Amino acid sequence: MSTSIPQQQEEGDELEKTWWKEAVVYQIYPRSFFDTNGDGLGDLNGIRAKLDYLQELGVDMIWLCPVYKSPNVDNGYDVSDYQAIMDEMGTMDDFDRLLEDIHSRGMKIMMDLVLNHTSDQHPWFLESKSSKDSPKRDWYVWRDHPTNWESIFGGPAWTYDPKTRQYYFHLFSKSQVDLNWENPELRRAIYDMILWWLDKGIDGFRVDAINHLKKEYTDMPNPEGLNYVPAWEKMTNVQGIQELLAELRRETFDRYDVVTVGEANSVRAHEISEWISEEEGKFNMIFHLEAHEEAWDEESAGVDVDDLRIVLDRWQRSAQGIAWNSLYLENHDRPRTVSTWGNDREHWRESATALGCMYFFMQGTPFIYQGQEIGMTNAPFDDINMYRDIETKNMYRYNRQKGVPHKDLMKTIKKISRDHARTPMQWNFGANAGFTGGTPWIPLNPNFNWLNVKAQQQDPQSVLSFYKKMLKLRKDHEALVYGSTHLTYLECPYVYAYTREYGEARYLIISHLDDDTCSWWNPVDGELLLSNYDSYVDGKLQPYEARVYLLN
Ligand code: NOJ
């Protein structure tokens, strides 16, 4: 192999081995996974019915997006009872059976935990809202005079309550009311709820929007005279948040052998230590959004490989020896990467697999979002009425009010709406792709007539087969879990390449993220372990070609 590949495993680089570092996590958006009762919405029994599929894929842990009782304004991210299951998904008995089935297969489960806000239908809020003297008034944030902030989902971040003549605060929609984390009684109630789930035997939490727990409620400067001003810095990673998070961890997660992943947008790699280091971190991992924010936007034709390298390498190096990364390409809040970062037309299969190979073998715990393993694509929905997501709908509404043309908005929505990740899982060629016998809550992506699990199960070259091979490879080679990661360059501008090094073992991972062929003259001295092409030529990378080598 080219001598330019550095050998730099350093002493003391090794972190303690733990089950969750070796695990691969599969994220389920239950509403869109599999429906067993014909109401058009996925349910807990649907997940139970597909455990064989997940086990065959090789996943170790499942992350369930919220299944708590909820009016579903934001599909479960508006919880009205943390200790009950939403009617559409089943019952607590169904949940207990699911937990048992998962554990009996040696798999684990991670729940979503929404702590920044509750639904406006939560009894705590109904009580808080009932009067200014309510004992729970201070569990939420009430003010006589609102700040001038815009909510993350558009429109004002405060809503007036005519009965008690005050405004309440909501970072997201007005039905998702922010909890007041400054109130110790509220915090205690939250900790008790978390302990209740932990006692039930779940294995971890993905903690929603956790970097927003603290706010600095003062007006934003408004030189442009906007109705509402984005106030990101006043509601994100505000000074003092670490103390709150430290208490949360101490009072709950620390007492169990569980894994935690905080969703923490805008946290940067230089902040790793306080967030996730093994010494002083508050979570085991976080989901940062930096790669998605820096390497692609709605104007981009494909992913910017330079930016991607810069961001991901920074996270790999910053975590090395002190913390552990989460690795992900997709989730329920992002469009499908094969459509945005890759090419979902003539190189659909190759780009879905090359993107998979790019992120999957870095140091960290890989997460796979449902449908990613079969290369599901953005939906071609032209009509705003085909979309269901509150963020998409609000964005459309507020921008239309500001005079933005319908055509321009639809162009953006077709590219970035969260609903692209939320169309039903495509299981087979049958009606509704086998997702439901009823009317699906959101239209299917019509490409299920060729893109589905069934079509890929028997095809050794399919995206699904490639994912299975990736999972197996990671399982069979400890170095691909614990080895250090080193970025390397192959003279092709659109190649993301890196080595993993662990003791004497060295691996090379190459993902060519472009439509063209690229020449690259250094033959590799090693054994080819994985490739997404049937045949390959040394010295050349075909469009979206991906390879994994064990180097000699
Ligand atoms: C992040 C979740 O991933 C997203 O789906 C949700 O809308 C917001 N947090 C609010 O809970």
UniProtKB/TrEMBL annotation:
Q: Which residues form the Glycosyl hydrolase family 13 catalytic domain?
A: 27-422
**GO molecular-function term, one example from the UniProt record:** cation binding
Q: Which InterPro entries does this UniProt record tie to the protein?
A: Alpha_amylase, GH, GH13_cat_dom, Glyco_hydro_b, O16G_dom_2
Sorted keywords for this record are:
Carbohydrate metabolism, Glycosidase, Hydrolase
An example Gene Ontology biological process? oligosaccharide catabolic process
Under catalytic activity, the entry for this protein gives:
Endohydrolysis of (1->4)-alpha-D-glucosidic linkages in polysaccharides containing three or more (1->4)-alpha-linked D-glucose units
Q: Write down the superkingdom of origin.
A: Bacteria
Reported EC number(s) for this entry are: 3.2.1.1
**What protein family is recorded?**
Belongs to the glycosyl hydrolase 13 family.
Q: What is this protein called?
A: Alpha-amylase
Organism of provenance: Planococcus citreus
